Amino acid sequence: MKIKILKIPSLLQLILATALLAAAGASGAATAFEKTTALAGSTLVMNGSGTRYKAIFKVYDMAMYLPATAKTPEAVLALPGPKRLSFVAQRKVTGTDLGLAFMRGLKDNNPPELMRKHIPATTRLIDIFSGKSFVDEGHTFAMEFVPGKGTQFFIQGEPQGQPIDDAEFFQMILRIWLGNDPVDMRLKESLLGN
Questions:
Q1: Structure pTM?
Q2: Which residue of 15, 24, 88, 143 has the lowest C-beta tally within 10 Å?
């Protein structure tokens, strides 16, 4: 009589299977973002929302608010007027890790000459997040652009320093999620409402 030996799946196999199941069913963010928000006297509409994953772990939920809906990165970048990116942390992340991740996203999606031109602004972005020991689960942060005023960063609703008065810099920020090499392709599609 032969005895059948069943192989017990390894922990790695179980983690990968869970990740694949999560990816197949992932759509939009778990956070219930408002459908509209007011900024600089304008009502912005939520273009889309989603979750940033690093491997199988949720890092943050994100929503993109625009003056009108846009279905392509080019249309988003071409839209005039104020824009807002809202985030809710889904896990505890060091401020330095978050700042460096934003820097990598900027570098991966913008030409070197643009990166050189905006060294002071990118350094400031890293400094803002690196100045925080941690961004805890449930904490909010945001990035807003207002024409004539610039790009303002917020953590827990509090402005972080003075705005950076350059429209080109906010477009560079948008490319972190909407560029040719976005930090998360599923998140890019969700932000574009696809």
A1: 0.84
A2: 24
